[in-house]
């Protein structure tokens, strides 16, 4: 059974600081997703990481994937209040008919304080 | 472009009642999914459909049935609702080919009393 563990689960940061969210998973996968969710809203896709060593950046967020270590990181640079949200990683495994099942981590609730 | 559309957005059911959550996507995607999200948790897969005419169980299928009516629509049915099925339900879809993003609907808030 695939397990996906995120840490920390809760993160309070001051504006302007840097921090990293970690996502560990228990089985081989070649695809990892990062999503953002605001309270009461749907999930917004941030990154899709497709291969070992993949790195993607968008604004103050940068995601990376190490498939050998089964680890992905989401790095936040110079946090701003607008980044306050819950961040989920999700790992994809191939299932029947080529549909990919996503298994989600529990989420990291990020609060950026002024 | 509507993306993934779910209805209803909010629903209150009594224990034992049945209902169907509807989902439609207009992106010509092959794969569709139903997830549930409970407070403080990530999403858990209920059922998925790799293509029109196929469905498979996910992590938490008990108490649910699904129908892939056509390529656009994937419905989730609760035959006899239980309080444990109080949750937020998300439908999602994905194109088959390598690397494509999975798109989520806005969610359906279901309360079973």
Q: What gap, in angstroms, lies between the N and C termini of chain B?
A: 36 Å
Percent strand of chain A:
over 45%
Task: Tell the overall outline of chain A.
Answer: globular
As a percent range, the share of strand residues of chain B is over 45%
- Total strands of chain B: the figure is 11
Q: How many helices of chain B does DSSP assign?
A: 0
What form of chain B results from the Cα inertia axes?
globular
Question: Biggest interface between protein chains, with counts per chain?
Answer: A-B, 25 and 30 residues
How would you explain this protein's 3D organization?
The complex is a heterodimer of chains A (114) and B (113). Chain A is mainly beta and 114 residues long. Chain A has strands at 4-7, 10-14, 19-25, 32-37, 43-49, 55-58, 61-66, 71-76, 85-94, 100-104, 108-113. Chain A is globular. The model of chain A has no long low-confidence stretch (mean pLDDT 91). Chain B is mostly beta strands and 113 residues long. In chain B, 0% of the residues lie in helices and 50% in strands. In chain B, strand 4 (31-37) and strand 5 (43-49) form a beta hairpin. The model of chain B has no long low-confidence stretch (mean pLDDT 92). At the A-B interface, strand 5 and strand 10 of A face strand 5 and strand 10 of B.
Task: Please summarize what this structure is.
The complex is a heterodimer of chains A (114) and B (113). Chain A is mostly beta strands and 114 residues long. Chain A has no helices and eleven strands.
Features of the shown structure:
heterodimer, A: 114 residues, B: 113 residues, mainly beta, 7-stranded mixed sheet, 4-stranded antiparallel sheet
Layout of helices and strands:
The complex is a heterodimer of chains A (114) and B (113).
Chain A (H helix, E strand, L loop, with lengths): L3 E4 L2 E5 L4 E7 L6 E6 L5 E7 L5 E4 L2 E6 L4 E6 L8 E10 L5 E5 L3 E6 L1
Parallel strand pairs in A: 2-11
Antiparallel strand pairs in A: 1-3, 3-8, 4-5, 4-9, 6-7, 7-8, 9-10, 9-11
Chain B lengths: L3 E4 L2 E4 L5 E7 L5 E7 L5 E7 L6 E2 L6 E5 L5 E5 L8 E8 L7 E3 L3 E5 L1
Parallel strand pairs in B: 2-11
Antiparallel strand pairs in B: 1-3, 3-8, 4-5, 4-9, 5-6, 7-8, 9-10, 9-11
């Amino acid at each position: 059974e695939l397990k996906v563990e995120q840490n920390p689960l809760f993160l309070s940061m001051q504006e302007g600081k840097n921090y990293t969210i970690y996502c560990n998973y228990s089985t081989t996968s070649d695809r990892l997703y990062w999503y953002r969710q605001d309270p009461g809203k749907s999930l917004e896709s941030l990154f899709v990481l497709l291969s070992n060593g993949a790195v993607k950046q968008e604004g103050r967020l940068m995601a990376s994937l190490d498939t050998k270590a089964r680890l992905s990181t989401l790095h936040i640079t110079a946090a701003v209040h607008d980044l306050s949200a819950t961040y989920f990683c999700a790992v994809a495994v191939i299932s029947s008919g080529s549909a990919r099942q996503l298994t989600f981590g529990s989420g990291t609730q990020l609060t950026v304080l002024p | 472009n509507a993306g993934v559309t779910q209805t209803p957005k909010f629903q209150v059911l009594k224990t034992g009642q049945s209902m169907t959550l509807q989902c439609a996507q207009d992106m010509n995607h092959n794969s569709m999914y139903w997830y549930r999200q409970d407070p403080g948790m990530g999403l858990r897969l209920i059922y998925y459909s790799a293509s029109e005419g196929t469905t498979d169980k996910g992590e938490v299928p008990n108490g649910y049935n699904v129908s892939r009516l056509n390529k656009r629509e994937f419905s989730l049915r609760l035959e006899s609702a239980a309080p444990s099925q109080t949750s937020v339900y998300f439908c999602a879809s994905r194109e088959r080919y390598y690397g494509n993003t999975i798109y989520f609907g806005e969610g359906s808030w279901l309360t079973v009393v």
